[in-house]
Amino acid sequence: MKADQRCVMTGTHFINGDAACCEGALSAGARFAAGYPITPSTEIVERFAARAPQVGGLFIQMEDELASSIAIQGMVWGGQKSFTVTSGPGYSLMMEHIGLAAISETPCVFVDVQRGGPSTGLPTLPAQGDMMQARFGSHGDYVTIAICPNSPQECYDLTVKCFNLAEKFRVPVMFMMDECVGHMTEKVVIPPAEEIDLYPRRHASKPPGEFQLFEAGEELVPEMAHAGEGYKLYVTGLTHDKRGYPALNPAAQRELVGRLFEKIRRAQDELTMVEAEGLEDADVVVVSYGITSRVAQKAIQAARDKGLKVGKLRLICVWPFPEKLIRELAGKVKALVMPELNMGQVVLELERCAGGQCKVIGVPHPGGTVHKPVEILEAIERGAR
Amino acid sequence: MPKGSVAITTERCKGCGFCVEFCPTHVLELSNAFNAKGYHPPHMLNAEKCSGCNLCGMYCPDFAIFGYKYPDQKAQKGEQGQ
Amino acid sequence: MSTTELHVHNPVEDLLRQDRVPTIWCPGCGIGTTVNSFAHALLGQQINLQKTAIVSGIGCSGRVSGYMNLDSFHTTHGRAIPFATGLKLANPELTVIVYSGDGDLTSIGGNHLIHAARRNMDIMVVCVNNMIYAMTGGQAAATTPGASNSTTTPYGAFEPELNMAQLVDAAGACFVARWTAFHVMQLERTMAKALKKKGFRFIEILSPCPTYYQRKNNMGDALAAMVDYKKRSKIKNGCPTWETALEPGGEIVVGEFVDREREDYLTRMRRQLGSHYSEFPPQPEEQESEGCEKEC
Question: What CATH number is given for C2-269 in this structure?
Fold first, then answer.
């Protein structure tokens, strides 16, 4: 289905990443949101609070992030598309309900505009320190999808993508922005609604009585119905059977958690979203994501000017990690270099997937600012040796 | 001629005794019999006194008992005091 | 079974998920008793059950949602109210009821309780107060009467209990009542009244927990607790909520304490937004669309 023109602000805009994210959500059909103010994400909900009533939606400022992150799930089961927005400290509070969204297969989007941590850390300065939390933050075993933009334009485009992935796979999708991307102002082109594809909700195709809320077909993603449609839904955070009834036994756990993993695992190829350049003859490949990829670009150019064969691989979808691609790449190059605005998080996964086939050089940074290109350049030179 | 009666699903009963205690006309008592879970479900001791008021049903936490009025007695529905 | 022989039918059964009964509740637990009053209130008020959703948190009372044959949501600990808030906002046609316990709603979920009352969110909250954390094995709750024993207060609790009626009244609830599991008929009437009211409605029900609260405090079995409620309760409709504190062993003030008119959240939002709010009927093609042709 196509986007609804009434929600889409078609045109060329000069806006920041936060504003672009808000417009992306509206284009994707999210007219409801809940949130709690936190720097540097607040501009998203400020704009949404002004825009939503114009399209029959609303923004509710909840009492905390715990409330926000579950209110959006109430909105989804009430028949709407919804999302919440936060930064590090609030993201920590939301972990509980990322788990709930995972087990109840509630399609929703969590936007985290990352700032320096731990704790209150650096409220107004960038970091990428929540990447492992986006993958493993909530207790128990589950998978999510995490997407990283590196420009305001991508903040728009990929927000739409996040909602589509949430609906397609019925998972909570993490939109991992950072302070730089959020506050960076650039040209953003919003296309006409008829050029925006939306993945429609997988709504129950069977009538009440025949429909089982957690019965999944071949794609392993069940259909859903909403409250008030006569389906007498039973949604629980407990391990449940196909009817949604609690089933507190190892067999039910194996079936449910197994399916939650498998529905994402089998979509690995589709979820391998990267921007690649110059990989064919590269000796060293710089693997990066988010704002760091823009600094890496400068370092790559400097290295090429010095005659080094350097490729670029930007991860747009960080989780699930593009395991197959990295494994193949590691067999062909001397080194993989990964700069990131944390003390080494996604590089651990890179190292695992490289499996010792090449050198893996992390370029850690505690955040607060971005890397200096020379720091990345030095790592490239070490890798090429 | 009693005005009503009770229906008991003995297997749901957990023997709390609420129905026995709060029956306004003292119709019920816990029986000596066991159900499958080992509880003593109630039975009617004074069936003729039953008004079918369903206060037992309102108290039963396990949806195991239900009072009903005989059809011809419906007009006599009165205030059920506590 | 006599039920089928005589062709009589307990109307409460229609509101239960038959394949989920018997319940997990202990013998003499009062939660099931409160469900009878709730079911009768729903049926008596001819509420559209297709448009009724019940939301619970975690705990013994949190299991109520799963036994009701309605749209049931069993959420996380303490967060039933914000979930219900989202549900109501997304579909204002729904009658949304939160049914949960004292620990869930007033302790871990205390902040949500206050703010839903302040917003006058149009939901009905039923709080079964058994004065203890029962699901986890009898630990002290914010509602455990001072000096009571529990598994985490073996020398008695060192803190006084919370008066939730006063709390939600102060926060702005438009309807506040308290009954005990003994007052089944009054409770049904109060629930029926609350179901028809708009805004944040709060009903507290004292309920026996023979397995933990009664046993830990040598208070006898569930029946003894019910008889005790009967003896100690005093009906005071309209009583100022600051005079309704539950003193250990003292009078149990019950009744409908607060019943006032206050604009609820959505009504106020629509009024204040005025022309800034645009109705949003679905596009015709939205209803027919069968899927995404392209890979999204």
Answer: 3.40.50.970
